Amino acid sequence: MLEPGEFNRCIDDSGIEVWVTQMGGFMNMNTAFIDRENGIVAVVDPFDSRRWVEALEEEGLRPTHLLYTHTHRDHAAGFPQMKRLIPDLEVWGHTESNHPGLLGHVVFRKVGFTHYWDHPPQSTVVWSKGNISLIVTHSPGHAPGHVTFHGHGVFHAGDLLFTYACGRDDLPGSNPMDLLHSIAFARNQLLELPSDWRLIPGHRYDWIDGTTPDWVSIAACLEHNYALNSPNIIDL
Ligand SMILES: [Fe+2]
Predict the structure, then answer these.
(1) How many Å lie between the centroid of ligand 1 and the Cα of residue 98?
(2) How many A from CA of 142 to the centre of ligand 1?
(3) Which of 11, 45, 167, 233 has the fewest CB atoms found within 10 Å of its own CB?
(4) What is the mean pLDDT of the chain?
(5) Whole-angstrom Cα distance, residue 70 to residue 158?
(6) What is the dihedral of CA 183, 189, 194, 196, to 10 degrees?
């Protein structure tokens, strides 16, 4: 298991590096996609931005893009500091995630997006920079404008799915039916992906055996995640 701020680093066949870490009291999982050839570093939901910037600097890298799954306070915790450290970032999220009616609530944090996705629920767009290519799926339910990212050997699920469970549907802005449809859509995506890709959850929570792995394989998640195996999902 990763210590807070410890990075796991993998390189896929196309030369894209994937760094994964966990940070903070809620064990938020952060993922970065790195294209050294083109100097692109896209970080998903950075929690401790100073730690991210320090680790990347050791490799002669710096964040160029932030990609947000959603704007709950813990996932957007690193935004103010990252913006101070790297002012010229591109910051990407879904238009629905900055809903003004929800921003005043304690569970959300305002993120200064510079670019938006605006595709409908349970649909996808491709986000590509340099040699990085990710599928961005609009997967609301846990939070408005929630998205997942997959590519380069990982499915970064945000708070749609954890290793064994799924995200809460009882928070301000949550919608239980949207969550069911988003999980059903994700299940079909996961069934089409290589079974040995990693499912990176938004938080490192309990697995079936009481351990808290940083991730599980897509095959293991499809087999054991209770939400992915709910009759409510499979019958949709
Ligand atoms: Fe969340």
Answers:
(1) 14
(2) 7
(3) 11
(4) 95
(5) 8
(6) -10
- For residue 63, how far is its CA from the centre of ligand 1 (angstroms)? 23
Which tens digit of pLDDT belongs to each residue from 30-71?
Answer: 999 999 999 999 999 999 999 999 999 999 999 999 999 999
Q: What is the C-alpha to C-alpha distance for residues 168 and 146, in angstroms, rounded to an integer?
A: 12
Task: State yes or no: pLDDT of 100 exceeds 80.
Answer: no
Average pLDDT over residues 116-125: 98
Compute, in angstroms, the gap from residue 65 CA to the centroid of ligand 1: 20
Distance 32 CA to ligand 1 centre (A): 19
pTM as predicted = 0.96
For residues 179 and 167, is the Cβ–Cβ distance under 8 A?
yes
What is the set of domains in the chain, with CATH numbers? Answer: 8-234 (3.60.15.10)
Which residues lie at CB < 5 A from ion ligand 1? Answer: 72, 159
Average pLDDT of span 7-34: 96
Q: Do 41 and 56 contact (CB within 8 A), yes or no?
A: yes
Res. 131: pLDDT tops 80: yes
Please state, in angstroms and rounded to a whole number, the distance separating the CA atoms of residues 11 and 162. Answer: 23
- pLDDT class for 85, splitting at 50, 70, 90? very high
* CA count, 13 A, side-chain hemisphere, 209: 4
- Measured in angstroms, how far is the CA atom of residue 26 from the centroid of ligand 1? 11
